[in-house]
Amino acid sequence: MGKKTNITLIGMPASGKSSVGVVLAKRLGKKFVDTDIVIQEKHGKLLKELIEENGDDGFREIEDEVNASLDVSNSIISPGGSVVYGQKAMKHLKEISVIIYLQLSYTAIKSRLGDLRERGITLKDGQSLKDLYLERTPLYEKYADITINEMKKTLAKTIDEICEKLGEKPRKKRSFKEKRFQKITNSKGKQSREKTDSTKSNKERADKKRFDNTKSVKEKSSRTRFGGEINPQKNNVQRKNLKKYFKKNEN
Ligand SMILES: Nc1ncnc2c1ncn2[C@@H]1O[C@H](COP(=O)(O)OP(=O)(O)O)[C@@H](O)[C@H]1O
Ligand SMILES: O=C(O)C1=C[C@@H](OP(=O)(O)O)[C@@H](O)[C@H](O)C1
Ligand SMILES: [Mg+2]
């Protein structure tokens, strides 16, 4: 497993092979290959059309052939869910990649899937989604090097778990405080926290802008009135005078 630079995701349709695959590729700095797209490109037709024209068995032959001749490196490979029927394809994918099975319950798959035929799933006449799930589960289990249970996990959590199982460094998690507040240093070198701009409400942003504008107008007028730069920290008399001046002018 150590020398393999490719990762192949297998699992039922809608288990997330394509959506998890593309994000995982970005996370690990790898290329992304959706072999359903390779099939469409090669045959110049949509998967749905290929299934209609060639039947389920004909489509699976095409799928087997395309996946078996995949020549890629440093890639996340996301084949279609039916790839596990292809012996040539699975032998090849096993040789060139670490195989990860994205496992999800039947109920979760059913609720994620919309119109089965529209989505182009290869179902034999009279076969239900439940039959398909039961038929395929042992095949996914047979080929998997690693199994990830996706139940009740967000896409990000699934990716974290894949990385963990692959022995990749975990993403540095920022604490709630870090996300909401940024560290600021005042003129005395003391550190405190202020809400980050992206987490401020519109009202808070508007208030801050108004405060900053007022501050700069006050600073400007104080310079004009008292001449040149002032240092309020050092000059208490000047500070007191300034306070009086602003109080008088604000009323
Ligand atoms: N936690 C999740 N992880 C991955 N996909 C999810 C998740 N929750 C909902 N989904 C949805 O499930 C579907 C997965 O589809 P897709 O990535 O095409 O799967 P596959 O390639 O295995 O058929 C997408 O519509 C995606 O938005
Ligand atoms: O499981 C299937 O029968 C299929 C799944 C599809 O891919 P996804 O698993 O990416 O949806 C696609 O390859 C084809 O329409 C057949
Ligand atoms: Mg897919």
From TrEMBL:
The record lists the catalysed reaction(s) as: shikimate + ATP = 3-phosphoshikimate + ADP + H(+)
Family matches, as InterPro entries: P-loop_NTPase (IPR027417), Shikimate/glucono_kinase (IPR031322), Shikimate_kinase/TSH1 (IPR000623)
Pathway assigned to this chain's UniProt record: Metabolic intermediate biosynthesis; chorismate biosynthesis; chorismate from D-erythrose 4-phosphate and phosphoenolpyruvate: step 5/7
For the biological process aspect of GO, one term held by this record is:
chorismate biosynthetic process
User: Which sites bind ATP?
Assistant: A14, S15, G16, K17, S18, S19, R119
Q: Name one GO molecular function term.
A: shikimate kinase activity
Primary location group: cytoplasm
* Region span, Disordered: 171-251
Q: How is the cofactor bound?
A: Binds 1 Mg(2+) ion per subunit.
Cell compartments where the protein resides: Cytoplasm
Which Pfam families is this protein grouped with?
A: SKI (PF01202)
Give the enzyme's EC designation: 2.7.1.71
Q: What does it do?
A: Catalyzes the specific phosphorylation of the 3-hydroxyl group of shikimic acid using ATP as a cosubstrate.
Query: Subunit notes for this chain?
Result: Monomer.
What is this protein called in UniProt? Shikimate kinase
Species source reads Lachnoanaerobaculum umeaense
